Structure formats: structure tokens, C-alpha cells
């Protein structure tokens, strides 16, 4: 769970963009708190005297029925206030000191329960990928059986696009908006169970259809398994993951979605050779569509043994249940108590943002929420209009158009899926170090170039040259997409919104991506008919360039901060951040074009510990801490 206070190097500092200060002189304190023009990011527990902190913990324990956990809660509150205090205080056992130290030195050393949760979430993502990919091979076969297979017919092209895009139409119009009520009343685990069960049943249903409109209906209902699951699983993972590796764990959603796409492409290739049997026409494409439901059934069994999100439990005032789940996700009870109390304090501070209006209205009227929504929508829209799903859904047809045989086209599609998965691996190590925003800014120009290579290759009069150019362009595109725009959008959207509107915000974000996914899926057959491949790929290359500018201006960095600390990051005024983005352009030109070594502008300044209330460190402070704890009877 991304709840532990910042690591030692950040916990003693306050983060502030130094360009924001000139906005503050004419603002009163309340206005600055709402707009966060100072962009301060600090631990709300810092500076509280220890006797008062212990009194606050006692009140918290009494109000929440946790008095039997008071010793652990007091220790946890001290660590939440100062992440290094365990090294100075004798109240911590050697084992507790070792575990708290290893949080920083061995960040990947986590409990089996946490990794079980990650495996389950990854398999749920694979369900998503297979649901999306198996139609890629099936569309080579089923249109002819259903009488909509004329490649020169505009009507048939639209109908094939409509059937292929049916799940995403459902996601954008209905199912994504069910995310909030499902999560509100049932929780994360039960929502995942229900959506995976729907995926299993509708995939079987799709394989039993006999008309294009029947297949459309079955695939439309598949959207009820895709939409809420895509909004819930990344949030669930983010709420259970430690901040230092949250990005890497949440991006498993996209990484294993890519694995599911590759697995779906492999299934397409294997089942392509299955002959029809007496009474069953199109057995191969039926097996392709039906097989995608099997992983969903496995997740339904897995989720029964997974922990519920502690944050969701806290939102329901189930603090003791949240503590028990945290004990499963952490090595020690002190860690669990620290996270429980720290979440509580940060959420209390977060609640001060609320203006008491409708939460949907507050997503647009409160600047912090509006900035998060804008950034999430940019990256979610970008995941579709970078052009990746044109290739994921129609790569078989694209390869056929360039001169491949049907079997070779399916095999080449498998190559794209495999690269999409394999090259997501580097992002596991870069998304929490290099950062979400930097990954996007680096990869989008590269994707634009790859799409242009793919489109321009169709002008080649040599079939060998055309096949080679298309293959190189598509495969290079997968290599650049996978560590950047692949994992970032769902990771970013899952962490961007405050808890009280997180389900609603994620519903809007996923509805954005699925709506444009539907638009892309339904329009591609007609787009390529009207613009030819050169114009169609050039269209999405141009969008990659536009999206690079939008990311530069409006997408903020979120790495390394707890979910609640991001409140201050997204409260930075929009104009301040956009101006910083524009100033990065000459820096990037000097560094990457002229190969100079310019000094990067530090948008965020860190105030030293001397500028904020200290909790100890020198001998005098050490004595003060001891005296405070003696007063508080710790």
C-alpha cells in the first residue's frame, strides 16, 4: 500500500516549485490552501510534539475501537512522523528496526501476500489482453461466414468494425460508469470476481453465435467484464502497494495485458488450423473467442484468497479489518499500525478539500481534482490515438495487405504481441526511477517515426521491401510503446485521484480510453479504405506529436510519493506547470540535438530540515524525544 511516509531523504523536506511563489503574496492562507499556490508537500505529522501526538493516537484508538492495538499504534505514529526514529529509540525491537530499515535498502523484499495479490491482478490483466486479442485472428474468418466479408464494401467494413468494437462501446457508454457503485457497495475483490465471471461467460457465448448481430450482442456484454475490471484492478493494486515500488506493481496491469494479447495471438495461430466438424462451421474462430474466458475463471478462484484493499476498508470505517489486511501485506504489526494511522491522518487532511457538493461536480470544480482528471484523460486518450490498438486489433489484416499469407500474418501478429510484452519489462525498473512523465516524453516521438515508417512502406513497389518495411515499423513501434504509453496510463490514472472520488475519477478515465478505443476500432476499416495505409498511419503519427505537447504541458510527475501526498502535486496551478513544460523545450534541444550538457531546471526545491519542525537527530533533540515519550507514557 502506498501509505508509508516518504523515505528518509524526502521525509525531512518540503517540496515546492520555486516559480510558484510570486502567486502567493496577494492570497490569504485559506485561498493558498485550496489552490496550493505554494505547492508544499510535507508530512502533516511533522512538528507535532510527541506528547500531543501520543494523545492524538489514544483518541484515535478510542474512537475507532482499537485500544487493544495502542502500543503498536503509538510506535507506528512515531515512524509515520519520522521514518528514521526507530534507529534512535529503544522502544523498537531489533527485529522491528531491521524490517523498517530494509523498507529502504531492500524495497523489493515484500510479503508473499503482496506478491500473491500482484499475481492475481496480473492474471486479471491477462484476461483483458486475451479478450482484446482473440478477435484479431477471428476476424480473418468469421466475416465471410456471416456474409460481411467483402473487403471493398463500405457496409461490410463498418459492420466488421462494429462487431470488433462492441465491448468498447459498452465500456464507454455503460459498464465503466458501473465502477463506482460496484466498488462502493461490494469492494474491490467482489468487483473483480464479478467482472471476471462475466468475461468467462460472454467469451463462451461469443463462440456459440451464428450471425453477426448475435456476435455483436455477445461481445457488447463482454464489455461489462472489461470496463469495471480495467478501472478496479489498477486502483486495487495501487492501494495495496508500497510507494517506492507502486508504479512497478501497478504497471503489471499493462505488462500482463500485453502478455494476454500475445497469448491471444498465439491461440489464434494454433486454432487457425482446426478444421470444421459435422454440424459446426467455423470451429477455429469459435475456439479462439471461447478460449479467452478460461483465465477469467482462474481469477475468480484466486480472488477468494486475496486481501481486500485497506483503503477501501478505512473508507467504510472498518479500521480493525484494515489493520488485519495490512498485517497480511506488511512484515510487522508496527508497519501495519504506521500505515493505518498515516492513511487516517492524510485522509483527514484530504477531506478538508471537500466542499460538500456532488462528487462528480467536485471533480471539475476543485483545481486539484480537475488537474488530475486532465492529466489522466490526456494519457488515456493517448493510449488509443498513439495507434497501438489499430495494430493490436487489425495487425493480421495489415500484414495481409502488405503481402503476407494468412498463416504468416497470424505469426507476425504473434511477434508484435510478444515484443509488446517483453519490452514492457524495462519499465518495471524505470517507471519509479526515470518517472512516468519522462518515459512518455521520450517514447512518443519515437512512436510517431515508427508509424511513418509503417505507412510509407506501403508505397514500395517491391513486395519484399514492403513486407520488410511494414514489419520493421510495427515491431519498432511495439518496442517504444511497451515501456512508455503502454504501462503509464492505467498506472497514472489509478494513483492520480484522491480517495473520495477515486472510483468516479477512474470511471471517467477508463471511459475515456474505451470510448476512443471504440472510435478507433470502428473507424479503422473505413479509414484505411478512404486514406489508404499511408494516410491512415500518418494520421496517428500526427496525433503522437500532438500528444507529446499535451503531456509536456499538462501531465505531472507522480513517482515516489504516497497517494495522499499527490494532493499537493496536483494542486500546483496549471499555468505554473505548463510554463515549466515550455521551458523544458530549449533544454531538451540542447541536450538531445546539440549534445550539450545544459543544467536542468529544478522545478521542485527541497527545503532542508532546518526550515521545518524537527523530530530529532542531534543530542539535544534526542533528549527532547525521550522526555516527550516519557510524558506520553510510551
TrEMBL record:
Any one GO molecular-function label of the UniProt entry: transmembrane transporter activity
Residues of the Major facilitator superfamily (MFS) profile domain: 117-559
GO terms under biological process: myo-inositol transport; polyol transmembrane transport
Keyword match Metal-binding: no
Location(s), subcellular: Membrane
Pfam families xrefs: Sugar_tr
Positions with biased composition (Polar residues): 607-616
KW Lyase (keyword) present: no
Compositional bias annotation for Basic and acidic residues: 617-634
Record-annotated membrane-spanning stretches: 158-179, 191-208, 214-236, 248-274, 372-395, 407-427, 439-459, 465-483, 504-531, 537-555
Alphabetical keyword list: Membrane, Transmembrane, Transmembrane helix, Transport
Annotated segments matching region Disordered: 1-27, 607-634
Membrane topology: Multi-pass membrane protein
Reaction(s) catalysed (UniProt annotation): myo-inositol(out) + H(+)(out) = myo-inositol(in) + H(+)(in)
UniProt-listed InterPro entries: MFS_dom (IPR020846), MFS_sugar_transport-like (IPR005828), MFS_trans_sf (IPR036259), Myo-inositol_Transporter (IPR050814), Sugar/inositol_transpt (IPR003663)
Any one annotated GO CC term: membrane
NCBIfam families, per database record: SP (TIGR00879)
Family membership: Belongs to the major facilitator superfamily. Sugar transporter (TC 2.A.1.1) family.
UniProt protein name: Major facilitator superfamily (MFS) profile domain-containing protein
Record organism: Suillus placidus
Highest classification ranks of the organism: Eukaryota, Fungi, Dikarya, Basidiomycota, Agaricomycotina
Amino acid at each position: 500500500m502506498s501509505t508509508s511516509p516518504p523515505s528518509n531523504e524526502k521525509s525531512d523536506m518540503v517540496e515546492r516549485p520555486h516559480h510558484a511563489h510570486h502567486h502567493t503574496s496577494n492570497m490569504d492562507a485559506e485561498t493558498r490552501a485550496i489552490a496550493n499556490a505554494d505547492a508544499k508537500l510535507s508530512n502533516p505529522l511533522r512538528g507535532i510534539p510527541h506528547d500531543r501526538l501520543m494523545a492524538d493516537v489514544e483518541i484515535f484508538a478510542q474512537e475507532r475501537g482499537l485500544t487493544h492495538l495502542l502500543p503498536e499504534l503509538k510506535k507506528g505514529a512515531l515512524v509515520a512522523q519520522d521514518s528514521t526514529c526507530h534507529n534512535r529509540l529503544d522502544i523498537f525491537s531489533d527485529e522491528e528496526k531491521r524490517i523498517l530499515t530494509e523498507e529502504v535498502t531492500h524495497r523489493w523484499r515484500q510479503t508473499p501476500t503482496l506478491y500473491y495479490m500482484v499475481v492475481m491482478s496480473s492474471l486479471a490483466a491477462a484476461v483483458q489482453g486475451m479478450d482484446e486479442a482473440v478477435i484479431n485472428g477471428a476476424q480473418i474468418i468469421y466475416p465471410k461466414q456471416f456474409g460481411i466479408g467483402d473487403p471493398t464494401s463500405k457496409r461490410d467494413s463498418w459492420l466488421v468494425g462494429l462487431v470488433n468494437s462492441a465491448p468498447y462501446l459498452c465500456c464507454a457508454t455503460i459498464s465503466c460508469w458501473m465502477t463506482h457503485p460496484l466498488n462502493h457497495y461490494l469492494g474491490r475483490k467482489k468487483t473483480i470476481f464479478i467482472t471476471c465471471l462475466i468475461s468467462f461467460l460472454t467469451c463462451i457465448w461469443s463462440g456459440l453465435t451464428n450471425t453477426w448481430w448475435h456476435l455483436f450482442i455477445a461481445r457488447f456484454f463482454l464489455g461489462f467484464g472489461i470496463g469495471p475490471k480495467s478501472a478496479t484492478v489498477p486502483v486495487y493494486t495501487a492501494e495495496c502497494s508500497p510507494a517506492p515500488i507502486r508504479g512497478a506493481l501497478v504497471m503489471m496491469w499493462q505488462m500482463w495485458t500485453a502478455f494476454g494479447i500475445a497469448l491471444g495471438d498465439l491461440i489464434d495461430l494454433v486454432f487457425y488450423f482446426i478444421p470444421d466438424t459435422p454440424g459446426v462451421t467455423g470451429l477455429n474462430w469459435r475456439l479462439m473467442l471461447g478460449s479467452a474466458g478460461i483465465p477469467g475463471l482462474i481469477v475468480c478462484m484466486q480472488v477468494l484468497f486475496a486481501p481486500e484493499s485497506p483503503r477501501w476498508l478505512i473508507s467504510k470505517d472498518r479500521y480493525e479489518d484494515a489493520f488485519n489486511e495490512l498485517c497480511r501485506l506488511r512484515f510487522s504489526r508496527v508497519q501495519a499500525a504506521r500505515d493505518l494511522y498515516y492513511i487516517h491522518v492524510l485522509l483527514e487532511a484530504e477531506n478538508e478539500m471537500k466542499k460538500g457538493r456532488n462528487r462528480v461536480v467536485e471533480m471539475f470544480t476543485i483545481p486539484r481534482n480537475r488537474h488530475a482528471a486532465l492529466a489522466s484523460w490526456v494519457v488515456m486518450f493517448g493510449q488509443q490515438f498513439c495507434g497501438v490498438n489499430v495494430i493490436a486489433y487489425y495487425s493480421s489484416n495489415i500484414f495481409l495487405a502488405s503481402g503476407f499469407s494468412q498463416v504468416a500474418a497470424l505469426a507476425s501478429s504473434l511477434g508484435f504481441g510478444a515484443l509488446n510484452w517483453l519490452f514492457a519489462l524495462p519499465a518495471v525498473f524505470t517507471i519509479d526511477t526515470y518517472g512516468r512523465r519522462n518515459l512518455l516524453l521520450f517514447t512518443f516521438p519515437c512512436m510517431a517515426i515508427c508509424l511513418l515508417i509503417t505507412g510509407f512502406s506501403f508505397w514500395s513497389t517491391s513486395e519484399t521491401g514492403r513486407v520488410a518495411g511494414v514489419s520493421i515499423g510495427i515491431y519498432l513501434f511495439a518496442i517504444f510503446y511497451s515501456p512508455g504509453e503502454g504501462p503509464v496510463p492505467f498506472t497514472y490514472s489509478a494513483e492520480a485521484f484522491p480517495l473520495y472520488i477515486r472510483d468516479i475519477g477512474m470511471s471517467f478515465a477508463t471511459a475515456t480510453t474505451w470510448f476512443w478505443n471504440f472510435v478507433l476500432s470502428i473507424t479503422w476499416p473505413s479509414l484505411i479504405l478512404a486514406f489508404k495505409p499511408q494516410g491512415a498511419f500518418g494520421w496517428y503519427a500526427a496525433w503522437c506529436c500532438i500528444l507529446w505537447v499535451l503531456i509536456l504541458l499538462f501531465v505531472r510527475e507522480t513517482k515516489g510519493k504516497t497517494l495522499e501526498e499527490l494532493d499537493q502535486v496536483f494542486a500546483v496551478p496549471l499555468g505554473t506547470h505548463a510554463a515549466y513544460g515550455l521551458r523544458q523545450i530549449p533544454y531538451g534541444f540542447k541536450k538531445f540535438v546539440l549534445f550539450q550538457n545544459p543544467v536542468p531546471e529544478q522545478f521542485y526545491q527541497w527545503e532542508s530540515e532546518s526550515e521545518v519542525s524537527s523530530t530529532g537527530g542531534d543530542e539535544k533533540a534526542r533528549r527532547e524525544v525521550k522526555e516527550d515519550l516519557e510524558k506520553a507514557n510510551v
